[in-house]
Amino acid sequence: MRVAVLGCGYVGLELGRQLAESGHDVVGVRRSDEGLEAIEDAGFEAVRADVTDAESLAAVPDVDWLVFAASSGGRGADAARRVYVDGLRTALEHFAARDDAPERLVYTSSTGVYGDHDGEYVDESTPLDPTTEKTRVLAEAERVAREVAADHGIDGTVARFAGLYGPDRYRLDRYLDGPVTEGYLNMVHRDDAAGAVAYLLEADLARDEVVLVADDEPADKWTFADWLAQQCERPEPPKRTKEERLADGGLSEAARRRILTSKRCSNDYLHELGYSLRYPTYREGYRAAIEAYLPGE
């Protein structure tokens, strides 16, 4: 099949590699020279375009599958809205108007849309309750990915990612040095985030559905940090309760909300659909980082 990955960054590059290795015709779309070089280095075609600029999207060839994996670059809610909501609408309108329009869209979202559930489990049926402006934008973009896509005759799927980690994103020092604030980590390795999207496309699953993409074990942060320290032959890091962290001065309101937001993400539906995780827990997923960290490994 022909596939375009719009915003072909951290997950998109791995997704493109996996799909190209499976024999699909993949195009990665980025704006910058550096981004285009990364796509070419990954072994598939690179096209310069901007999801917020309909005219630039004309450079992208016709495709059967469209993956929207663009990033707002870590900026605020306004930048997020411009990319995730306005850019997604622009892309949908542009590609749907073609004579050879795509049949499927996968939009990559975040489990941040759930808000706080006091440490309880959440899944695809859990009502969304985003607590920040940016996560409210993400929730709106999910609606665009399914409802607006359907209005244009495209079947939309939302892949709702837990916290991404993997090569270049292990953040060992954060947990080894501390202090580590209590709470839960909901994670998914980059290769599984990409692998799940590839699987949903190739197996023709979850049209007009949401799929929560997380690993098998929501991790207690203190337990994870102590395990990581032991594996890296370091002392256990200092720890803070939420109350101690919130007592610190200088926290933004968004940071306070993140600290108070607690949930555990269930991947039962992903398993029901038949996807097999390459890294079922952080123990498998962090092995390469630990081996690289230890002297003489």
UniProtKB/TrEMBL annotation:
Gene Ontology CC terms:
cytoplasm
Q: Where is the NAD-dependent epimerase/dehydratase domain?
A: 5-170
Its signal peptide is none
> GO molecular function, one example?
aldehyde dehydrogenase (NAD+) activity
Q: Which domain of life is it from?
A: Archaea
Q: Which residues are listed as membrane-spanning?
A: none
The protein's name in its UniProt record: NAD-dependent epimerase/dehydratase
Q: Which organism is it from?
A: Halogranum salarium B-1
Its ancestry begins with: Archaea, Methanobacteriati, Methanobacteriota, Stenosarchaea group, Halobacteria
